[in-house]
Automatic annotation (TrEMBL):
Top-level taxon in the UniProt lineage: Bacteria
Pfam families hit by this protein: DUF2141 (PF09912)
Name used for this protein in its record: DUF2141 domain-containing protein
Protein source organism: Flavobacterium anhuiense
UniProt cross-references to InterPro entries, sorted A to Z: DUF2141
Length: 120
């Protein structure tokens, strides 16, 4: 492994049940946040928790968005007004105001192997 590459483990907790999967999207720029993932992983849920690990990442700035895909259909379900119907969360506990969280609130730097904890 190159000195500039790191491992990022994402631990998700506080899920309401073990049904479905957790989807974790990793973003590396403001322009792609919540639009196009840099990398994405999914995990089964056990005891209302899930863990994924992104290996061989370049050190740098990232943000995470995750959601509980309770029906395992591969997307964040929304109601007729566009509001999410499945649980979701972002790194740094970033919350949106009248919309989704902002990259500037969710971003963090990774310079070595790290773990990020996200609670629903």
């Amino acid at each position: 492994m190159s000195a500039q590459n790191v491992k990022l483990t994402v631990a998700v907790s506080g899920l309401k049940n073990d049904t479905g999967v957790v989807k974790v999207g990793l973003y590396n720029s403001d322009g792609t946040f919540l639009k196009t993932t840099y990398k994405s992983l999914a995990s089964e849920i056990k005891d209302n928790k899930a863990v994924v690990t992104f290996d061989n990442l370049p050190a740098g700035e990232y943000a995470i968005s995750t959601y509980h895909d309770e029906n395992s259909n591969g997307k964040l379900d929304r109601n007729s007004m566009g509001m999410p119907m499945e649980e979701y969360a972002a790194s740094n506990n970033a919350k949106g105001f009248m919309g989704p969280p902002l990259y500037s609130d969710a971003k963090f730097n990774v310079s070595k192997d790290s773990k990020v904890e996200i609670a629903f």
